[in-house]
Amino acid sequence: MRKHPLKAMIIQHIKERSSLYLFVFVLFLMGVIFGAVIVNSMNFTQKEDLYFYLSRFFGQVSEGKVASSVEMLQQSFFHNLKYLGLMWVLGISIIGLPVILIMLFLKGMVVGFTVGFLVNQMGWQGFMLSFVSVLPQNIVLIPAFIIMGTVAISFSLKIVKQLLMKKTNLTESPFALFTKYAAVFMFISALTMIASTLEAYASPILMKNVIELVSK
To answer: Mind telling me which residue stretches traverse the membrane in this protein (predicted)?
Structure first.
């Protein structure tokens, strides 16, 4: 049975960068764990202040006093796209490689802190809220960050390798390399739009239902 060209290309892409994908995933996971640990290092006053603002936000969600879905979609999409776009640019710059690693770690830390704080302050109710407020968009967004990080690092390393090699030994032209790199960013942009749509339309409804359920 003949493999579909796109499927074969994706499989080959993952195989060639399997160790890099593993490294990026572990780095992101370390960020999540670190973010959850930070919650325990906060003092009582810091937790109370943050919980106060969080309670007000959840109250506004339950009353429907939040930004419109269109505004949330735009804000979420452009925020995430700028973050991912910066990673993409840093992959071209070569010297930005360490910054890409830091950005991946920080993204994981934010996710870990958010979930960790909700669970720490609200127990199982916090777990339910984090499940509906963080999970829907991050099911798509986290893979997007891992793919973008991996591809950006891989591209940066390829550029370094090609600069050190003689032109006669190049296996792929710089233009072809850049075209593929740009195509990946377009794919990541599409994933970001899907994630932002979930965050803008699905998360508020799920959050409102859970808040009403746990407040009974």
So the answer is: 20-39, 83-106, 113-134, 140-160, 181-202
With H, G, I as helix, E, B as strand and everything else as coil, classify residue 215: coil
Q: DSSP code of 170?
A: -
| Contact of 111 with 138, CB cutoff 8 Å | yes
Check if the beta carbon of residue 72 is closer than 8 Å to that of residue 66: yes
Can you say whether residue 67 is alpha, beta or left, with left for phi > 0 and alpha for psi between -120 and 50 degrees? beta
Give the other-Cβ count within 10 Å of 129's Cβ.
22
| 162-191 pLDDT tens trace | 777 655 455 667 778 889 899 999 999 999
Q: Give the integer Cα–Cα distance in Å for 116 and 119.
A: 5
DSSP string, 124-163: HHHHHHHHHHTHHHHHHHHHHHHHHHHHHHHHHHHHHHHH
